[in-house]
Amino acid sequence: MQIQSRRKCDRHRSEAPVQYVYRQPDRYFNSHVLNYSEDGMYFESIQPLEINSQVRIIMPNYASDASGPDAFQSYLAEIRWCQEIPDEKSSQFGVGVEILEKSHDRLTNIVAPVSQTCDRCDIVLSTASVCRIDGSICLCPDCFDQLDEMPEGKVKSDIKRLLDRNVL
């Protein structure tokens, strides 16, 4: 049986330093990209980042003739998922983002979302009324209650994986 990826673009391994700006326009966090594609990238964060919020990513080793993520100086991206990395030594989070804009200059605009969509039933609700599971799955209160009432086990775990788009 062949497993199909739901990704639109191929991922490429990369170990590039990055700085990211999240919520506070003058606060930069250091990190590194571990892989990237034409429309997204994966990096690690010392803090959980909210799904569907925006983050500005800056490449300190920017070179316009480079290949890979260093070919642009900055990116504006939307956070698609954020999961804690199990590590006893430190608390870190893996973050997957969808690239919205690429620039050879530093991008400065970050827009806070006012609404989100339930990952299960697709209704649109205000960001304040969204329930979250493990920081990555956005559910309306009704869907959250239905999933919460299910007994723990393989079925519930598989549903969470499916909702989190982690089906491989």
What do these coordinates show?
With 168 residues, the protein is mostly beta strands. It folds into two domains: 12-103, Thrombin, subunit H (Beta Barrel), CATH 2.40.10.220; 115-163. It has two helices and ten strands, in the order E-E-E-E-E-E-E-E-E-E-H-H. The chain has helices at 141-149, 154-163, and strands at 12-21, 28-36, 40-45, 54-58, 74-85, 92-103, 115-117, 124-126, 131-133, 137-139. A six-stranded antiparallel β-barrel has the order 1-2-3-6-5-4. A two-stranded antiparallel ribbon has the order 7-8. It has a two-stranded antiparallel ribbon with strand order 9-10. A hairpin with a 3-residue loop joins strand 2 and strand 3 (40-45). The longest helix has 10 residues, at 154-163. It is elongated. The two termini are 12 Å apart. Residues 1-5 have low confidence and may be disordered.
Keywords:
168 residues, Thrombin, subunit H, 2 domains, 6-stranded antiparallel β-barrel, two-stranded antiparallel ribbon, elongated
Q: Determine the mean pLDDT.
A: 78
**What is the distance, rounded to the nearest whole angstrom, between the alpha carbons of the first and last residues?**
12 Å
**Largest sheet report:** 6 strands, antiparallel, barrel
| CATH fold description of the largest domain | Thrombin, subunit H
Second CATH tier, the architecture of the largest domain: Beta Barrel
Count of individual helical segments:
2
Point out poorly predicted stretches: 1-5
CATH class of the largest domain: Mainly Beta
Structural class: mainly beta
Strand segment count: 10
Shape: elongated
What's the gyration radius in Å? Answer: 17 Å
Estimated helix fraction? 10-25%
Largest sheet, order of strands side by side? 1-2-3-6-5-4
| Whole-number tally of structural domains | 2
Under CATH, the homologous superfamily of the largest domain reads: predicted glycosyltransferase like domains
Percent of residues in beta strands? 35-45%
